[in-house]
Amino acid sequence: MPRKVNRRQFVISGTAGLAAAAAVPAFGQTPARAPQPAPQTGGGPTIVTRSRVKPVVIASANGNRFKNGGTVTGVEKAFSMIARGSDVLDAVIAGVNIVELDPEETSVGYGGLPNADGVVQLDSCCMHGPKKRAGGVAAIEGVKTPSLVAQKVMDETDHHLIVGRGAQDFARNMGFEILPDLNTERSRKAWIEWKRRTDPLHYLDPIKRQAAIRRVELEMIADGWIDENHFYGTINCDGINAKGEICGVTTTSGMAWKIPGRVGDSPILGAGLYVDGDVGAAGSTGRGEANLYNLTSYLIVENLRRGLHPKDAGLEGLKRIKANTIEKRLLKENGDPNFNIIFYVLNAKGEYAGVAMFGGPNVNYTVCTEQGAQTLPCEPLLQGIAMD
Ligand code: GLY
Fold first, then answer.
1. What residue ranges define each of the domains in the chain, with the CATH number in brackets?
2. Which residues are catalytic?
3. Ligand 1 within 6 A of 112 CB?
């Protein structure tokens, strides 16, 4: 449901005003950085700053839906931190943590829909525009907030991506709690129902099995077991502060019932997320395989670099996916793709857009500015819906 926040309430409770925010410590801990070029430190990365921009946070629609029992949604949290001077990556990750930890959200983190063996395996990556640093984890088990582990990969290692058991060991060594099982009652029940419906099909030939699994997916969506937008799951969240510093994060439990070990687009730099601190950010939700084939977030950021508006840059990315989707099993009768994929695009001026292969009442994105958070319809490339 679209949700609007009373502007006065939001500004008072969330940000306390941008001007004041630049001068106050972030959450009483970290002194806010003054709005001036950052000092160039010895061996560290050069931090690129630019003239003032209106801060914005953009995310998938679940960024404005879940509160994990608290009072603010993910985008509200991220925006208020940016307004108070926090590092933009710290802010967008704190925003998605709310969604990762919410047991009601079945597409991300704790309680995400499990793989075909009933095990929740999570993927995430993050990029810090000004520092030009990135980190990711894939197929990690037992950690509720893979986005924070991805940030540790960025901050504490020379690597960009750590997967599977190695990712879990790394998280343990970094002090993360490792749980034996990230299923909630809700995600476990949905998996049992999926197993019940698909088990007799495991002995079919691969093509028939794929078709049968697809049929069960559609039935389970129609019967209310899973949200149609949660089949591929994911939250992407990108932000820009008044200095024009851009960061982004994507985190997911991945495709429901995936083959164990399957990694989607979310943790892959250039696919589930790409940030160029001088240009903009793009991230995605939806069918990861289609995105991986085209590295579409990278493509979209390159389109921003050519001067395209975020909406046009995103639509160009979707056209590339459509052009490269030629397998019959992935096409509707009219030749259009039979899946949805959405991109959230933000440029260095603070302009943004949410674009989708197909629109529809549940195909939205969310944005948070000093006016508060709102959920908006995505701009579709194609008419109709993915699964008709
Ligand atoms: N976009 C999430 C996934 O395909 O895993």
1. 56-382 (3.60.20.30)
2. 234
3. no
